[in-house]
Amino acid sequence: MHSPVEPSEPSGERHFMVPMRPSRPNPWLFVGALFGMGAVVGAFAVAPSTVTEQVAQRSVTASVIVTPQTVAAAVSDATFWREDRVLRGDTLAAILARLDVDEARAKAFAAAHGASLGRRQLLPGRTVKARIDRDGQLSELRVMGNTEWTVFTEDGAAFTSTRQPVTVERRTLMKSGMIETSLFAAMDAAGLPDTSAVQLADIFGGEIDFHRDLRRGDRFSVIYESPTGADGEVVGPGRILAAEFVNQGRVHQALYFDDPSGHGSYFTPDGHNLRRSFLRSPLEFSRVTSGFSTARLHPVLGTWIAHKGIDYGAPTGTRIRSAADGIVEFAGRKNGYGNVIVIRHGGNIETLYGHMAGFAPGLRIGIHVEQGDPIGYVGMSGMATGPHLHYEFHVNGAYVDPLRHVAAATPPIGVQLRPVFARSTDPLLADLHRLRNTRLAVLE
Length: 444
What we know:
By secondary structure, the chain is of the alpha+beta class. The chain has seven helices and 22 strands.
């Protein structure tokens, strides 16, 4: 793989805004509370019509003895919660380090529970809470899922895990913004969740090349669901219901619609399906570091040979998605490809994914995967000089440049469903128009 060259367009680097974490509570405030227990002042209001009587009174004296031993006990028993959010490419150990969990304790916990808290649960944007004492000793860890917390509670020298459901309310929010440096930075500035940027790239991926086509001044508007728990905290990624992206002056719009059978997809206002038969890229965000070529100087072998695929540079652990629906034909090690997956699709098409760090849990030969399903993670296995994905596209056994393959569109809204589609999406379209006009008014 060639050394990456910084492109003029946004790269796959993430710009994620982490909320300020509360500082550790001062244990001496607890000590102050102990000293103040002997003096309590109360104020009571009495309604004018209330009948009052003389009541016999007697004094009760309670003494609290504060010693260095009681202070030490109070301080040592103090525990508090710390909270953080999962960043792109995070590991459990990295999250525990940011939560200030004792290093030895964090390593032991990660070794015991790292497998159960895999990449499927530690998704970017999800909340993680830890209850620790003043020495950083972990006593409880909570990881937010879509509809439940995974709770690890201290049980002697080990931890036991349980699941606690979360009551979820789905709020509908509207946001808009402008591209200055990258899509993720613009999404952060607009207050949109990290997952919305990924969804937006998926929705318009067949019409906009987010690796090369973004320009400063491009605008977007998004109407999306925000799943919120009883405490008002966002508990998971929400679906985009409608979106508009103005790229180089061209307006692209998408409206989510569930057909009567329960299958949902994104459509243009006139009913054309935005879903393509193949994703433009198996990675959500990255950069092309080596293109399709009949002759390329191999970075490891040092000889000129054909490069019959596309190399996408991305950090180790970046999620790789299946480019289309298909059947896993091969999953294992293959010569210089290292860890590789081959997926067979319809129309005598195969896609190949090489140099992977590992495979997604449960992935094996013969299983069916759908477009966008995670199949593995970026690595540098085999003959590679750095972490990247090598992606190939085969049609009838011949190598085809993936960037030049024209993916077919899926069927549009049928005539019978047009009235239902209009009733469902017209309000969303009206909201998009209002958002655009509001944005333009602000800019002017």
